[in-house]
Amino acid sequence: MESVLHTKYKQEVIPALKEEFGFKNVMEIPKIEKVVLNVGYGRHVKDNAYIEMVEKTLTTISGQKPVHNKSKKSISNFKTREGMNIGVSVTLRGEKMYEFLYKYINLALPRVRDFRGLKRDCFDGKGNCAIGMKEHVAFPEVSADNLNKVHGLEVCITTTAKTDEQARSLLTKLGFPFKEANK
To answer: Gene3D superfamilies of this UniProt entry (predicted)?
Structure first.
């Protein structure tokens, strides 16, 4: 079954983007390829209870089992060695991705404390967007009652857009609440 956000993309966003940017071919229209949820362990690298809690939380939020990320090289200032586990991530595609984005836009972001919109400069110059959250408690699946430690979460949205302007327009039409340009 198709999610609400995917239906909105097909029925409303595609025609609006086609008109706004003058795309002649439907394949030119930007779309979201994948969403990656990432949590770094930080100073809790050796705390197995914390790592298990992060894994469990990410599994609950995304509906998929996370993958461990290993460091590529040793950095003495961060006390990391090459091949050491430094975080976990989940890659969402297809319907799971659209279901997560719907939940993120309509349930999680409004629950963030002092939320006034997403920064407009969260794009990388190639149409991809990275949004950081200081607390994972904003998600409805996470109950604040049995939490030991609160951790952050990064949501990276990869699009097929060629420019940041196209990607921002795509995400805005899908319902992402970006701050106004002059603020």
So the answer is: 3.30.1440.10
